[in-house]
Structure formats: C-alpha cells, structure tokens
Design a protein that fits this description.
The protein has 405 residues and is of the alpha+beta class. It is 38% helix and 22% strand. Strands 1-5-6-12-11-10-7-9-8 form a 9-stranded mixed β-sheet, sandwiched between helices. A 4-stranded mixed β-sheet has the order 14-13-15-16, with helices on both faces. Strands 2-4-3 form a 3-stranded antiparallel β-sheet. Strand 13, helix 13 and strand 14 form a beta-alpha-beta unit. Helix 1 packs antiparallel against helix 4 and helix 9 packs antiparallel against helix 10. The longest helix has 20 residues. It is elongated. 31% of the residues are buried.
Length: 405
C-alpha cells in the first residue's frame, strides 16, 4: 500500500519534530555543560558487533543482508560507541565523555505497543572511569537532564547486577538462570514452585522483595551471610547513596531495588531505570548501568576499560511532558510574508526576503508564490499562519509594510 508507511514505521509531522527538538536541545545543553562530546556512529553494524557480550537479544535486531555478511540496524548505541572508542579513538586520554542523540531500531515484539520498530534516544557513555565518583556523576547527570525538562514526578530505581549475580550463586547451577529470569521478570509464582529447599526458597523470595528505601534494603541485605566481596559491594552502594544525598541540589528520589537485574550478561555493577508516575500509570523514561567488560570485547588486544552510561527514551519523555504545558503547542511562525505586487516584481521580492533573512540572528521569511493576490486573502493567510508583518514589494520604490495585530 504505497500511501502508508511500512509496518512499525511512522512519520514525524512538523509539530512532532518541534516538540522532539525542544526535548533534545535541552538534553544537549545539559550534556555539554557536563563536558560530554557528541558522537555519531553508524546506523548499520556488523551483527557480531551487536551481539558481543550478549547485550542484545538476536530476535530484536532488524537484519540487512549484504553480499558478504549479515548486518543489523543498531538497536541501541552502547555497543557502537564502545566499538568506536577502542578502535577509532584508540590512544585517547581517559575518561571519554560522549553523548548521542539518534534513532535506534528494534524488531517489534509482543510487548512493543503498536508494533513500533524505530525509536529515538538521547544518552551518554562515560568510558575509562570506574568507581564511586563515576557512578555518582552519571546519576547526577541523569537528574540534571530530567530537571532541565521540568519533570517532577519521577524516581530512579537502582539495582546492582554484580551483587545479585553473586547472591544467585547459592542456588543450584541448573536453576540459577531460572531464578534470575524469574526475579528479573517479577515472576513470584515461578520462584514459589521451583524444586528448592525451604531455605533456598526463602532466600529466593527475599531476593525478590529487596526493594524500597535504600537504608531499609541495605539493612535487609546486611542480615544475609555475605562474603567479603559481597559486603564490599553493599558498602559501596551505601557510600553511593550517601554521596548522592550530599551532592544533589534537589532531593534525588532513589528506590533501591536489587531485583532490578537484566536477563542478559551486560552490566557488571549498578543498573538503574528512571520511571515517571503518570495518571495513565508508570512509564520507563530511560535506563542504564555499569559495564566494565564490554570494551575489551572490541579491543584488538583484548584490553578492557570500565564504562557506564544511560539512555533516555525521547518518545516516552514527549508523552509524559504533554500534559505539563512545557512542550511547544505549535510550530514557530514566520516573521515576514513578502509579497510581489505584480508578477514582474518576483526578483525584487526574493531580494528583499534575503535582505530580511540577513538582518538578524534568525529571521524567518516566506515569499508569496502567487497563490493569492487580494489584500484580504493575504491578511487572512498571514493571520492563520501567525505571521505578524507583510511586506509588499515593487521593483522600484520602497516596500509597503503592514503590521498585523
């Protein structure tokens, strides 16, 4: 059907673009203030690049078949940026602070509303910096982004992939993946019906319920028998929460949720989601986390470096911002309508329009193309388009200027 876009695609009309641009420009300003630099990576990647580290579910990649190899449209940006950083930017001084604003593509699944396959994201990657300060920078930067958009009802759900993976080691190896998937997908029924001893079932349900105020959750985790490594992770989490409370200019709403784990081996440290409470329910506005082994998968010598980042979902932000009145409710009108008085005055009209365009930082001017010539129809058109001034131009003499109320 030539009159419709393909399944999963959509058109962005001028108002959609204006609102998208409004969001992106505010995020871009925040990224720049924090010292991050814009990077643009290839839309197409080799499939093995996207698959490295188990970061992407193969079924979500929209594949493109070349003569020599299978390519994929990027379903996210972290893998592409990691590849570019360790190859094209090899030898650069760490840390690398990079940001992106780009479209990504994912094959529509059952859980994707409307079968959408193209999405827009904005995010950052902080490469070559591990530890408490880097984790805090990313979460504080995330908070700054949301504040710049005027969002109020949001919170960060914070987990720790390394700690949860370590705590799962107490379960029989054959059941660890099942327990992990059940916790990740909030599937309590599966945990209650697995062939586990009473002690392990109690442990599984405790891990499932490790969410709430950070102090309360950390206290509950501390009641477990932890080895030295696990206790170090818990202490680091505690220090991170305290640092965020001290540094954030506003109260950064953090919910500690140690059941927040991914179903694939991508993250090695903290993981997080930012969610917004709306009248229609909860929306996931973005997600991120620490990945300290990923860069080594792309490095020709296998040398790795720590990394952490997040992405924000532009469409979700746009939906949440709609009721706030912050977004533009119309496209920006032109400042001038330049009208040639007769068909012979066209060159003079284009010349005058160009003079106006050069008279300020951004003066928007459109030229009447002969579709209407009556003064009243010109006024009606200008008012409908929000244009405040009409210039009637002749080849000889000064333009006649009319200002509309």
């Amino acid at each position: 059907m030539v009159h419709q876009p393909p399944m999963g695609a959509r058109d962005l009309l001028p108002l959609d673009v204006a609102q998208k641009y409004w969001i992106e420009e505010r995020l871009r300003q925040v990224f720049r203030r924090w010292g991050y630099h814009w990077i643009i990576t290839s839309t197409l990647e080799r499939l093995d690049t996207l698959m490295a580290g188990g970061a992407i579910e193969p079924s979500t990649v929209i594949q493109v078949y070349d003569e020599d190899e299978v390519l994929g449209l990027r379903p996210e940006l972290t893998a592409s940026i990691a590849r570019a950083a360790v190859t094209r930017m090899a030898g650069a001084t760490y840390p690398l602070r990079l940001y992106y604003i780009a479209n990504v593509f994912r094959r529509a699944g059952e859980r994707i509303h409307g079968g959408q396959q193209e999405f827009y994201q904005a995010g950052v990657e902080l490469l070559g910096a591990g530890g408490l300060m880097a984790d805090a920078e990313i979460l504080l930067l995330l908070s700054d982004c949301l504040q710049s958009l005027g969002l109020s009802r949001w919170r960060v759900i914070l987990g720790e992939a390394g700690l949860m993976r370590s705590l799962l080691s107490a379960f029989p190896p054959a059941l660890q993946d099942t327990v992990r998937h059940a916790i990740a997908n909030l599937d309590r029924v599966t945990l209650e019906t697995l062939p586990l001893s009473p002690e392990l079932r109690e442990r599984a349900l405790l891990l499932f319920d490790l969410r709430g105020r950070p102090a309360d959750v950390l206290q509950r985790v501390g009641s477990l028998e932890l080895d030295a490594h696990q206790r170090q992770i818990v202490n680091t989490l505690k220090s991170l929460i305290e640092l965020l409370e001290e540094c954030s200019p506003v109260d950064l709403p953090v919910i500690l949720d140690l059941s927040l784990i991914q179903t694939f081996d991508y993250y090695t440290g903290i993981v997080f989601e930012v969610v917004s409470e709306t009248e229609g329910g909860q929306r996931v506005l973005g997600q991120g986390g620490r990945y300290d082994k990923l860069l080594g998968l792309y490095d020709p010598q296998g040398q790795t470096a720590p990394g952490i980042g997040f992405c924000l979902n532009i469409e979700e932000l746009q939906q949440v911002l709609q009721p706030t009145g912050n977004l533009p409710d119309d496209t920006i009108p032109c400042d001038w309508l330049v009208v040639p008085v007769t068909p012979h005055d066209g060159a003079a009209a284009f010349a005058y329009a160009q003079k106006l365009r050069g008279s300020g930082e951004l003066v928007r001017v459109e030229v009447e193309l002969g579709l209407r010539d009556e003064p009243e129809s010109l006024r009606e058109y200008a008012q409908r388009r929000g244009i405040k001034r009409i210039a009637r131009v002749r080849s000889a003499g000064d333009p006649e200027i009319e200002t509309l109320s």
